[in-house]
Give the backbone structure.
Amino acid sequence: MEIGNKKTTLSDDAALYHHQENVSEKEKWQTMSWKERWEYFKNYYLLKVLGLAVAAIAIGSLLYTMLGPKPETLFSVAIANRAMIQEQYLDVQTEFEQTIGMDAETQETIFDGGYDFEYDMYQSMQKFAIYNAGGDIDVTLMPLSVFEVYGPKGFFCQVGDKISPELYEMLKEYLVECSLVDDDGNPVEGSAAVYGIRIESTAAYAGYEAEEPVVLSVNLGTKHPDMVEKFLRYLFSLE
């Protein structure tokens, strides 16, 4: 019995000890000066609070990127089979954005060099067909050999339908014709028209040597014909 009483007394004493310890901690905080409280907070809680703040900012930034307002796309260019190398088309993109006075915070242009109809034909063709059908490509830059294959397949519109008669006349010596073909690959009678413009002699190729002539074609679903005109005037240095 005495042993049992001692255990009970010890347990009660232990509980009382912890209670007194907790109370003492609260009392200690209440009696601290502001400087002492800051030191205590800095030593025990500051890193945890900063960690939570950084995590909250990262999550908020991710959610804003995913769910926040998207920039308006002013112009989209598909670049096939290295018709321009990356360094080259990034320079062109930057200069063109400056030319049109683009607001980088709310607007964007897209120059996508990820089309390769030679070594990655299936993936590139699938991507090109989907974006073209959705009107998400305004113009395509490609070697002449690629244009000769895909120009007749109906992906592009007649150049004269999307630019002003004045600009069309200025670019007359650079125009490229082709005829459309049917599902069997046979030329469609009377379909010969201008579907491309050669651009390898423009300032965009200064310092770069094109392996073959480069053709710009206007995609059938373009949503920005006004930007097509501006881009051609920029390439050919026409005001």
Q: What stands out?
A: The two ends are 107 Å apart (CA to CA). The longest strand covers residues 72-80. Residues 156 and 219 are 4 Å apart (CA to CA). Residues 15-20 have pLDDT under 50 and may be disordered.
